[in-house]
Amino acid sequence: MRISTDLTVNYNFNQSESPCRIITLEKNGTNLEPVHYSVQAKEILQIFKENFQKEDPVLFLDGTAGEGGHSFLFLKEFPKSKILLCDRDPIMLSRALARLSDFSERIISIQTNFSEIDQNLLNSYGIDQTPQGILLDLGISTFHLFHSGRGFSFRESEPLDMRLNPNSGQSAEEILNTYPKDRLMNIFYKYGEERWSKKIAEVIIETRKQNSISTTSELANLISKIIPRKFWPPKTSSDSNFSSASD
């Protein structure tokens, strides 16, 4: 995937070399440091090792599977364990399953939000026990920012979707083009901590009377024109508004 004229994203699933590495960057043909690792993988694994024996038939719940980095370590460290692999993002879940294909007989995958997991749901999948180890790694991943094409970043002009599950709920485009001013203002202020939330909401309302706002570049350009440059924080002024409108 090309991000700029000289920056390329490569996906590395060399599990034996670095099981937690997901993405590396390449610039002008030279490999750069990886930009995404499973969060605190060694520390999390150590916690489980302190609570379970290597040969225990543990049922783990990875409620935010991502690309499977943590689950790979669990399955490798505990050879008799099973993983209940969940993610609300169907694309991420499919990527995790591909990465963990060597352990397929020990994986039960469910495409859902971890908040919806209860014993009734587990029973419907033939699981009659409660998970003994649970991991939740919250937030979006580098994949979402660089490669999803759903508008989580304004590095490229992408559709304003911003849903972790693109088949459920309202997209950011729908929200921006249909919500009333007060509701938009509240979203930007409450979730984006945006001091210019009222002005941004007003301009969005006026802009959409002429044309709908449908891409990240359109929203970023709109916001950058509203906020005086002297008030821009070190990061780009559009950052907080993008995060506040996401799933």
Automatic annotation (TrEMBL):
The keyword Glycoprotein does not apply. GO terms for cellular component: cytoplasm. The keyword Transport does not apply. One of its GO terms (biological process) is rRNA base methylation. Transmembrane segments: none annotated. GO terms for molecular function: rRNA (cytosine-N4-)-methyltransferase activity. InterPro entries: RsmH, SAM-dep_MeTrfase_MraW_recog, SAM-dependent_MTases_sf. It comes from the Bacteria. Keywords: Methyltransferase, rRNA processing, S-adenosyl-L-methionine, Transferase. It holds the Pfam family Methyltransf_5. Belongs to the methyltransferase superfamily. RsmH family. This is Putative 16S rRNA (Cytosine(1402)-N(4))-methyltransferase.
